[in-house]
Amino acid sequence: MPRRTSLLPNCRPLIVTRPAREAAQWVAQLQARGWSAQALPLIDIAPAPDSVAVRQAWQALAQFDALMCVSSNAVEQFFAARPADVPWTSDAAKPRWWVTGPGSQTALLAQGVPASAIDQPGPQATQLDSEALWAQVQPQVRAAMRVLIVRGTAAGADADAPGNGQGRDWLGARLIQAGAQLQWVVAYTRSAPVWDAARRAHVTQALAQEAVWLWSSSESLANLIAAFPGQSWQGAAAVATHPRIAQAARDAGFGRVALAGAGLDALCASIESLG
Predict the structure, then answer these.
(1) pTM, full prediction
(2) CATH of the structural domain 14-43+194-273, one choice from 3.40.50.10090, 3.30.365.10, 3.50.50.60, 3.40.50.2300
(3) Could you read off the pLDDT of 154-185 as tens digits, one per residue?
(4) CATH assignment of 46-191?
(5) Which one of 43, 88, 108, 232 has the lowest number of neighbouring Cβ atoms within 10 Å?
(6) What is the dihedral of CA 76, 82, 84, 90, to 10 degrees?
């Protein structure tokens, strides 16, 4: 697909709703393609609510055959919480490190995890999700294999609950069915952003400009809807990175919703399809 090099006269702003660090990365990539992208993070990230649990996970790291990190935030927060007195070497025989996309892979590489130890959906995957990861790692799974899922939790939620999101629950169910021994650890907390006057004005301006909203999380979408009760989104357009998120946008009332495949080219193509 040819790269977009300049703004079209009818190009509307793109609102990137990912957490701040990921939003900045997406904005930079989209602006490099010529899009008028703006960051409006709709999920805030904070450290784990239980540092003891994370410390225990690090102390037991060598006992796990694989760690599944649900996001780049999971990677960064998990490594940020590694106790200074707990050794870790990147050339250890295990664990394998499982992720669903290139952002998380990049975060692992930045922490010194070798590329040869990382598993993620293959190049043929049309969606970067737990189902695509399972297709890649299923041959590794065996009875009694120990897998740790490193995840986040919503502020105020039960951090001890085993599942946290449809994709992770689905993957956990597949692993248990295959005989794996599964554990979870919460490495970070997600919360709704602070809705100050500037953030609310940004939303109002985006609606007036008929901006295209980019959604990679149903939770961030829910945070927006909750902050603007009664607001009609019928005139707004959205691009979602997963069918479940696309359906959530339709249910919220977005008038036009496009589904993006894996990768930046596919995301740009979906934005283009909205006109």
Answers:
(1) 0.83
(2) 3.40.50.10090
(3) 876 555 555 444 446 889 999 999 999 999 99
(4) 3.40.50.10090
(5) 232
(6) -80
